[in-house]
Hints:
Blueprint: E1 3-7, H1 15-28, E2 32-35, H2 49-57, E3 64-67, E4 70-71, H3 77-91, E5 95-100, H4 106-112, H5 119-138, E6 142-145, E7 150-154, E8 168-171, H6 175-184, E9 187-190, H7 197-210, E10 219-228, H8 231-240, H9 248-254, E11 257-260, H10 263-275, E12 280-284, H11 291-309
Parallel strand pairs: 1-2, 1-12, 2-3, 3-5, 4-5, 5-8, 8-9, 9-10, 10-11, 10-12
Antiparallel strand pairs: 6-7
Helix pairs in contact: 1-11, 2-3, 3-5, 5-6, 6-7, 10-11
Amino acid sequence: MIKVGIVLPQDGAKYESILNLSRKCEELGFESIWLYDHLARSKAPFLECWTTLTAIARNTKKIRLGSLVLNNTLRHPQLVAKMTSSLDAISGGRVELGLGAGASNPMEYQMFGLQLEEPATKIRRLAEAVQVIRRLWTEDKITFRGKYYSLNGATCNPKPVQKPSPPIWLSAKGAYMLKTVARHADGWNYCNSTEGFRDRNRRLDGYCRDIGRDPRSIQRSWHGGFLVGEDRHKIIKMLEKQPDLLQPEEYLKRNHLIAVESPEEAAAILRRLVHEGASYFMLTLPYTWREKDALRCLKLYAKKVLHSLK
């Protein structure tokens, strides 16, 4: 069964709008909602990922709640394990933990004086973090000796509601990161153009077979969104009048938004990705700082895309 979630960029959006959109996603039958993890992306307000997800959890009933993706360099994995198990308890077992190696936005590191590590170092650190988190969820007490993390008789209580644990998603494009997905993840998220998905999906299958893992045990997701018809022109004009938000082309790029002529064209792109191995879609909802337009696009996703895939 194909699952469809909605990504709600927090750029300039008020909590009330994010909550209303989350409730509408639940009402329309979407699988999940996902928030970004950034300290800042522009001059506009940007709600913090985990506290916002927690508030949404108390005001929704069944929709799943995901991070796309938590920056591993900002938090110790023991804290992430504790945060996730707590939110899983609060939400009744609805958490999807998305993790990333970090530094997709170097401005944040410069702004707050954070260390910017080499990509290979960040990926090795992430691989250790995933091991620590999963063990804390599934074992009573752990001792861990790694290059980046060291734990002595560490515990995580309460354990997550979901058994054996909440799903862990890793975003990956390159070979080293895809190998990390094969070894440690429950789900793989690809957030670039649609053209590279098939090749990387096949590589991931090969990396799974290399270590004796069934490739079918990993969910495959594509993250992106669509601007239908005149929406690309409309949103660019709006962003030009909103100097505190990301500049238009940067907004489109960071949210992986593709211009299409019709909803049917968007649905056709997604069906092609299904044939190439995708089993999950995380669709970016544009206009989240302007609730009326965001709701219009969300209803279009539900009517023309969600129903088509199901």
